[in-house]
Each structure stands twice: as structure tokens, then as C-alpha cells.
Amino acid sequence: GDSVTQMEGPVTLSEEAFLTINCTYTATGYPSLFWYVQYPGEGLQLLLKATKADDKGSNKGFEATYRKETTSFHLEKGSVQVSDSAVYFCALSSSNTGNQFYFGTGTSLTVIP
Amino acid sequence: NAGVTQTPKFRILKIGQSMTLQCAQDMNHNYMYWYRQDPGMGLKLIYYSVGAGITDKGEVPNGYNVSRSTTEDFPLRLELAAPSQTSVYFCASSLEGGKAPLHFGNGTRLTVT
Known about the structure:
The complex is a heterodimer of chains A (113) and B (113).
Chain A: E1 3-6, E2 11-14, E3 19-21, E4 23-26, E5 32-38, E6 44-50, E7 56-59, E8 62-65, E9 75-77, E10 86-93, E11 101-103, E12 107-112
Parallel strand pairs in A: 2-12
Antiparallel strand pairs in A: 1-4, 3-9, 5-6, 5-10, 7-8, 8-9, 10-11, 10-12
Chain B: E1 4-7, E2 10-13, E3 19-25, E4 31-37, E5 43-51, E6 54-57, E7 64-66, E8 76-78, E9 87-94, E10 103-104, E11 108-112
Parallel strand pairs in B: 2-11
Antiparallel strand pairs in B: 1-3, 3-8, 4-5, 4-9, 5-6, 7-8, 9-10, 9-11
């Protein structure tokens, strides 16, 4: 079935460092792909999304490109801030999943000053 | 701008007790979901609903029940609580199933002892 595999954490970076969190997916159809962020004590919030191949989602300096050839949707940010410390989840949905969402296991990011 | 509201925020149950986790949304979304989040395991779908009067099982429905009598409310019922149900529970809603992003509540942290 459809699934998402996400880079394991935790990840610790210094402020202004470059961030990459890897996400690959398995899907028989054409899924929509999402990155969600969870700050401590809160629910998940949508960070960005892409609904078709070669789409680039972007928000708050984060970017991810939907790459069908490598079945990937890696999250990147050029210069992280302390306020980016959170858990990041990759997710997919498609008609094959009954339009349900399937989430990766989450990657915890801590940014130190 | 209430969004998705979950109550209670925290609860401790004894084994064998029952309880209902409440979830309400004010965005007129047809799709509603219940997830549980266990450490290092990501989110697992318990039940979902595509509209009032319609519910369906997700990946991990055993030990839970739901109902959807109105568009706004989607309560999750635990009967005969077990330690394996210790988790953080998130309710979410969506306008358009898999294409539109999920809006999450802030979660209910449940401990069964």
C-alpha cells in the first residue's frame, strides 16, 4: 500500500545552518504530498504541499519539490532559526488511500543559538 | 477563529473505564479524522468520516467507536480502556478529503493505568 518513509532524527543544528529532512514515498497512483510541523504542546499545522510532479511547495523559507522520478519530497531551508525547532512530518494522500492521509514517523529538529 | 477544538486536554483513566473524547470544528468541513500519536510512530488513523451520518475505520480502530450526527462534532469513544490506549489523540478536519490540508486540534493526552 501507499506509505511514507522519513529521515530519522533527532536533528540538531546551529542557527543559520542549512536544513534537509529526507522524505520518500511509495504510491501506485499520483499522491498529493505534504509537510506538517508540530510545535511543542500543539497539534500539527500544514507547512507546505504539492499536488503534482515537479510542483514546489514553499512557506516560511521552507521548500520541497515533488520529484516523481526519485519518489521524494525532501524538506529544505537555507538558514534555520531557533524558532524552527519542532517536529516535522511528511505525509501523502491519494485516491488509492481513499483520500486518507498517511504520515511519516516525524523528525525532531532542535536549533541551537 | 476556533478551528478544531478538542476536550479534554489531559485525562487519566483506570483500566476498564470508558470515556469520550470530544471534537468540534466550526469550518463546515465534511471530512473529519481521529489519529493517535505514539512516540516514534507518527500518526495512525483510528476512524474518519466523510460527512454527517457516515463513518469508516482507519488503520487502528479496535477498542474505539465514533459517531457523526452533525457536521460539526465527531466524538471518539473508548470502551474498556487498556494501557495500550495510552497516547496523544488528535482530531482533524478537512474541506476536501485528501486534496485539501488537514486542520488539527491541539490534542488530548490520555494515560491509562
